C-alpha cells in the first residue's frame, strides 16, 4: 500500500535517489535538463515536501512552494520501478488539497519542452500551457 506523508530531513538521501531514478531516462535524452536533486535538504526545511512510501521504500516525492495565492509544484518524481500505480496522480491530488488549504487560486509548474509525455499528461489532467521560453514550459491549473 502507498502511504503519503510529509518528508523529514532524514528522507533527503532517499528523495534524491528517487528523483535521480525518476528523471534518468529524460536526463539521457535531454542534455539541457536542469538538475532535479539540488537543494533537496533546503526544500525539506523550507517548503512543503511530501513523500510516497511503499513499505519502507520512498517511491515518490512532490515539492510544493507557496507563492502568495499560487502553489508551485517545484518538483515531482516517481521511481520508475513503481510507475503505473497512480502514485504521481495521488501526489498531484495532494498538491491540490494543500493549495486549497492555503487558499491558493491555482497550481503552477514548469517542465521541459522535450518532456512531451509529461506535458501531455498534465494537459489531460486539466492543466494549461501558459508560456514557453526556450525549453521551459510554464503551466497552470486553476482551482
TrEMBL record:
Read off the lineage from the record.
Bacteria, Pseudomonadati, Pseudomonadota, Alphaproteobacteria, Rhodobacterales
Q: List each coiled-coil range.
A: none
Write one Pfam family the protein is assigned to.
Acetyltransf_1
User: PANTHER family annotated for this entry?
Assistant: AMINOALKYLPHOSPHONATE N-ACETYLTRANSFERASE-RELATED, AMINOALKYLPHOSPHONATE N-ACETYLTRANSFERASE-RELATED-RELATED
Q: Name one GO molecular function term.
A: acyltransferase activity, transferring groups other than amino-acyl groups
Return the Gene3D superfamilies for the record: 3.40.630.30
Q: Which SUPFAM superfamilies match?
A: Acyl-CoA N-acyltransferases (Nat)
State the organism of origin: Falsiruegeria mediterranea M17
Designated name of the protein: N-acetyltransferase domain-containing protein
User: Looking at the keywords, is Transferase present?
Assistant: yes
Q: Which residues form the N-acetyltransferase domain?
A: 2-143
Amino acid at each position: 500500500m502507498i502511504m503519503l506523508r510529509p518528508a523529514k530531513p532524514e528522507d533527503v538521501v532517499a528523495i534524491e535517489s528517487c528523483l535521480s531514478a525518476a528523471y534518468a531516462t529524460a536526463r539521457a535524452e535531454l542534455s539541457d535538463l536542469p538538475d532535479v536533486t539540488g537543494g533537496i535538504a533546503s526544500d525539506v526545511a523550507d517548503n512543503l515536501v511530501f513523500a510516497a512510501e511503499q513499505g519502507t521504500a520512498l517511491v515518490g516525492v512532490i515539492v510544493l512552494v507557496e507563492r502568495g495565492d499560487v502553489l508551485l509544484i517545484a518538483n515531482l518524481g516517481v521511481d520508475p520501478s513503481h510507475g503505473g500505480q497512480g502514485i504521481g496522480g495521488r501526489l498531484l491530488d495532494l498538491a491540490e488539497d494543500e493549495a486549497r488549504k492555503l487558499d491558493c487560486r491555482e497550481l503552477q509548474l514548469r517542465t521541459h519542452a522535450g518532456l512531451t509525455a509529461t506535458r501531455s499528461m498534465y494537459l489531460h489532467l486539466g492543466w494549461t500551457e501558459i508560456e514557453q521560453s526556450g525549453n521551459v514550459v510554464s503551466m497552470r491549473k486553476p482551482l
